[in-house]
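User: Round two. Same drill as before: sequence, then structure, for each protein.

Assistant: Same drill it is. First protein:
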Amino acid sequence: MAKANSFLIFREGGQRFGLNLAEVERIEKCVEIEDMAAKPEYVKGILNYHGELIPVIDLRRVFQLKEREESLSDMLIIARTARRVLAIWAEAVEGIVEKSGEEIEDAQRFFLGLDYVKGIFKFADKTVLINDLDKFISDREFKKLYKVINQ
């Protein structure tokens, strides 16, 4: 039997996404974020998180989903990998689910070239895209972004 993995399930733009629960540091109500110049299109802005400035990712822009008005019920998911810290703007957090490796499909079978989607599984009759946080922003873009943040 394959080892089960825990995922945080959240929704944005009508699509469900999953993050490895081990990478999720905290979930916060939406707060004001600072806009900045010279940022990639899918970076919504910068969040001051306990003195640490981190980029906020807008998945609507990453996945070219329909724009929507922001709401006070929106959430920020603070996630940390070995390589970077990001905040993801989410419409709603739906919960935590465990999936075995056999239940997760290889994303490249469906999304050839989308390296930031590392797997797909079914949850409540909907498809969940598992995000690879280390690949949302290339190393080059990330260094450039942090250079602008720290000025």
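Second protein:
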Amino acid sequence: MNIFDIIGPVMIGPSSSHTAGAAKIGYVARKILAKEPVRAEIDLAGSFAETYRGHGTDRAIIAGIMGMKPDDERLPQSLAIAEKNHFPYTIRTVKIPKCHPNTAVVRLWAADGDSAEIEGASVGGGNILITKLNGMESAFTGQYNTLIIPHNDTYGVIAGVTQALAAFRINIGNFRLTRQEKGHQAIMTLEVDGDVSRELLTLLRALPNVLHAVYLHANE
């Protein structure tokens, strides 16, 4: 157990679940987009939907989308900052069957039309669980260094990625592959030991049939 699971995260309040965790969900969505977002749509479910104004969940998610961490002193002013920067967003309350009580769906768009969508839950103590990436099932927490690699579902892609990691002496702690349909887009999620260098990321992005490679450092 991590010491922060006991004492809680370093954060701007009032709630580790509704504020710190929400900020992390927004931040992960930004990283998945891998570009500066210009528009956001946010769906809140469960207790997020019921109490988001009082607990600052809306401010926290927008802060994360704009690149702020849970302990950023600007977090309480994130909505005003978004308005000042002409950053449009919508927030809806929805019902998602069988979801965690603190669940958010975040959709982001970049200026060139690229988009990203994640579904994530704040599971307590500032920790999160990402359950969907671009409509595909997922399961990662961000507590470990994580590579997310969208790619064309064809032979040799997984081998190329694992060989690149081996060349840089990066060990894989956990691996998950999801796809919506055979032969279409798939997503690799790899929790790894050690840090991923810029050189390795560049190599991964250049591999045949790899569409992108996103790196989430555990300390982000």
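The two ends are 19 Å apart (CA to CA).

User: Perfect.
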